[in-house]
Amino acid sequence: MRTTPCLFVAALAGAVLVGCNDDDDIDFGTTMVLQNRSSFALEEVRLARIDDPEFGPDLLPDVLLPGEDLIINNIDCGVFDVLIVDELGVPCTLTDLELCVSSDVFVIDDTLLDICAFSPRESP
């Protein structure tokens, strides 16, 4: 998915990425924690493997308010794009996030949302 080319900048978003286990016989899955540290409520969070043209269903049971966390369990190892839509309807796509084995924490803050909102969009 490359609908909104927002490059995920680890330093700006405060992300902690953990590499994948090379043992193909074991798939532990992972837990992703999405921390909303922005000034905006988040209305949608959707995942897609980078080779999948469609995002999956909205993972939020309700709006994720500023200061709240979303915990998503049992994500298969892989590289994903994450679509986030804020309360203003502005989409933000975090691209090429490697999720595997242990907990991955991603902080969504105003700087990251600004980068996404003002990034030029790819041509269709």
Structural class comes to: mainly beta
- What composes the largest sheet? 3 strands, mixed
Q: In the CATH hierarchy, what is the superfamily?
A: Domain of unknown function DUF5300
**N/C terminus separation:** 12 Å
- Enumerate the strands of the largest sheet in spatial order, edge to edge or round the barrel: 3-1-6
> Nearest-angstrom radius of gyration?
14 Å
Shape: globular
Topology order in helix (H) and strand (E) letters:
HEEEEEEH
Rounded average pLDDT: 75
What portion of residues belong to β-strands? Answer: 35-45%
What is the CATH class designation? Answer: Mainly Beta
**What would the CATH topology be?**
Immunoglobulin-like
Characterize the structure shown.
With about 120 residues, this protein is mainly beta. The chain has one domain: Immunoglobulin-like. About 10% of the residues lie in helices and about 35% in strands. It contains two helices and six strands; from the N terminus they run αββββββα. The protein has helices at about 10-15, 110-120; strands at about 30-35, 40-50, 70-75, 80-85, 90-100, 105-110. A three-stranded mixed beta sheet has the order 3-1-6. It has a three-stranded antiparallel beta sheet with strand order 2-4-5. Strand 4 (about 80-85) and strand 5 (about 90-100) form a beta hairpin. The longest helix has 9 residues, at about 110-120. The chain is globular. It starts with 9 loop residues before the first helix and ends in a 6-residue tail after the last helix. Residues about 1-25 have low confidence and may be disordered.
